[in-house]
Amino acid sequence: MYGYSLFGLRVLATQPLPGVAALGNSGAPDVEVQVGTLPPWLEHHASTSQEFLYVSPYQDEAGHPLLTVAELDGGGFFWLRYGDGIEFVVDRPGTEIWTSWPEPWTLDDVATYLLGPVLAFTLRLRGITCLHASALAAGDRAIALVGPAGVGKSTLAATFAKRGHPVISDDVVALNRQDGRFFVQPGAPCIRLWPESVLALYGSIEALPRLTPTWEKRLLDLTQNGCRFQHQPLPLVAIYLLAERSSDAGMPRVEGLSSAAGLMALVANTHANHLLDKTMRAQEFECLGLLVGSVPIRRVIPHEDPALLSRLGDVILDDAQGLPTPSAIEAGHG
Question: How far apart are CA 32 and CA 211, in angstroms?
């Protein structure tokens, strides 16, 4: 077995996971991953009707949903099937994951799901709220960059990484509340970038390797390329909501956001929110309510010119430096 620390969880896998350094297999795991196999009882469930928790409205070229999620054994397990044939089964307590895949896919392809949406769903089952965000270290504090897919979170995080700022996590930001403060847990030490982002940041698409041979996305290894990965949790000092890009000469700009608007923005940008039951959704709303009461939510308006990404980073860092320390925030809100 191979041991890993991911999103605050100790994960044991039956095969090495790509892109993550193993820590050994000592200690009791939070999650076990059975790689290359599905539960033997799944075949029986596959031949019977399933209760679908979710069917993606998006389809591949063959007309198959990009993702279906079925509840099995009275809700004791979840069966996630992606349109490309890669499958996962997750138990309801979020303690065990099985995965299997057909040719021509490889474990590298599987890891793109496992280290992202599948572990995010597992965290949600365990009662841990996950933002669809990137997070980086600003000194001894963390800031999160929040927004829907395609808004530029990963590209901005890579900009910070190029400038020497340690990145804590990309795409999935797991939050743990301790002693009245929220801490960001380290994820996988990599950033996934579309080719156009690599071109804007590095001048050539070939500057970074493909994430997998079958996908156009590129991999920025945060343990190489002069980058730094933040291995320890950090207290969250601010959340920056990335808005639509503007051509206005006064951009980029950071502005305040009301608690109500901030709460609604966070509700729309949590991971796996389409898979939550009533209890999980209530837990999420309670967590996010506490979050907006203790951590400022700031709205960021980027300029549409990618050449101003570095300037955008300066604006965010300058704003973050003027915010109270986490201890002052905690005291101010009881």
Answer: 24
Which of 73, 97, 125 is the last residue in one of the domains? 125
Indicate the Cα dihedral angle 121, 124, 128, 131, nearest 10°: 60
Q: What angle do CA 107, 109, 113 make, to 5 degrees?
A: 105
Q: Does position 333 have pLDDT exceeding 80, yes or no?
A: no
Strand partners, 277: none
Structural domain tally of the chain?
A: 2
| Inter-residue contact 11 to 27 (CB < 8 Å) | no
| Helix pair angle (259-267, 278-294), 10° resolution | 140
pLDDT at position 82 is 95
- Per-residue pLDDT tens digits for 27-57: 789 999 999 999 998 887 766 667 789 999 9
Angle at 286 between CA 31 and CA 328, to 5 degrees: 95
Long-range Cβ contacts of 1-4 (<8 Å, 24+ apart): 1/25, 1/32, 3/27, 3/29
Computed on alpha carbons and rounded to an integer, the radius of gyration of the chain in Å comes to 20
Supply the range of the domain harboring residue 156.
Answer: 130-332
> Is-contact 101 34, C-beta < 8 A?
no
Model pLDDT for residues 163-191, shown as the tens digit of each residue: 999 999 999 999 999 988 999 999 999 99
Reported as a single tens digit per residue, the pLDDT across 82-103 is 999 999 999 999 999 999 999 9
Q: Two tokens at 127?
A: 């009662």
Say whether both 152 and 107 belong to one domain. Answer: no
Which residue, 93, 125, 157, sits at the end of a domain? Answer: 125
In angstroms, the Cα distances linking 42 to 12, 38, 58, 67, 88 are: 22, 7, 25, 18, 11
Instruction: Indicate whether 87 and 233 sit together in one domain.
Output: no
How buried is residue 307: exposed, middle or buried, by Cβ count under 10 Å (0-12/13-18/19+)? exposed
Residues 111 and 150 placed together within one structural domain of the fold: no
CA dist 297 and 319 (Å) reads: 12
